[in-house]
Amino acid sequence: MAAGGPGVGSAPHIPSASSLPLAALNVRVRRRLSLFLNVRTQVAADWTALAEEMDFEYLEIRQLETHTDPTGSLLDDWQGRPGASVGRLLELLAKLGRDDVLVELGPSIGAAGSWWLSPMITCKARNVTSRLSLHSASLQVPIRND
């Protein structure tokens, strides 16, 4: 390691979409995902097929059927399980052949999670941490009144 200590002069680690937590999906994206998956159809995989791919048991799926938004409840329940991530969700949707969902929601999922992927910027003079916005070139750092 360098004499200056760990991380000095090195780029910050930026997590990939595969490690992006499900909490990065905002309400709008979750609702739109529900619009696609809550509809029971014979020609496309619905939320029950996704639940099976997420390793939910039959009785768990039956219990989710009682909710008004089973997809939303599924995501909430899956969020606490090991391996749950935005990247894994996208992989499962692709495996299920839900390219329509990926095409429609892919940009929204990317925008919703972009702040999780943005590097942390630390202003050492003021000991303030902020996230660099990927949507603008400006950096907004809160001012402390010391």
From TrEMBL:
<dbReference type="GO" id="GO:0008063">
    <property type="term" value="P:Toll signaling pathway"/>
</dbReference>
<dbReference type="InterPro" id="IPR034249">
    <property type="entry name" value="MyD88_Death"/>
</dbReference>
<keyword id="KW-0395">Inflammatory response</keyword>
<dbReference type="GO" id="GO:0045087">
    <property type="term" value="P:innate immune response"/>
</dbReference>
<dbReference type="GO" id="GO:0070976">
    <property type="term" value="F:TIR domain binding"/>
</dbReference>
<dbReference type="InterPro" id="IPR000488">
    <property type="entry name" value="Death_dom"/>
</dbReference>
<feature type="domain" description="Death">
    <location>
        <begin position="32"/>
        <end position="109"/>
    </location>
</feature>
<dbReference type="GO" id="GO:0035325">
    <property type="term" value="F:Toll-like receptor binding"/>
</dbReference>
<dbReference type="GO" id="GO:0005886">
    <property type="term" value="C:plasma membrane"/>
</dbReference>
<dbReference type="GO" id="GO:0043123">
    <property type="term" value="P:positive regulation of canonical NF-kappaB signal transduction"/>
</dbReference>
<dbReference type="InterPro" id="IPR017281">
    <property type="entry name" value="Myelin_different_resp_MyD88"/>
</dbReference>
<protein>
    <submittedName>
        <fullName>MYD88 innate immune signal transduction adaptor</fullName>
    </submittedName>
</protein>
<dbReference type="GO" id="GO:0002755">
    <property type="term" value="P:MyD88-dependent toll-like receptor signaling pathway"/>
</dbReference>
<keyword id="KW-0391">Immunity</keyword>
<dbReference type="InterPro" id="IPR011029">
    <property type="entry name" value="DEATH-like_dom_sf"/>
</dbReference>
<dbReference type="GO" id="GO:0050830">
    <property type="term" value="P:defense response to Gram-positive bacterium"/>
</dbReference>
<dbReference type="Pfam" id="PF00531">
    <property type="entry name" value="Death"/>
</dbReference>
<keyword id="KW-0399">Innate immunity</keyword>
<dbReference type="GO" id="GO:0034142">
    <property type="term" value="P:toll-like receptor 4 signaling pathway"/>
</dbReference>
<dbReference type="GO" id="GO:0006954">
    <property type="term" value="P:inflammatory response"/>
</dbReference>
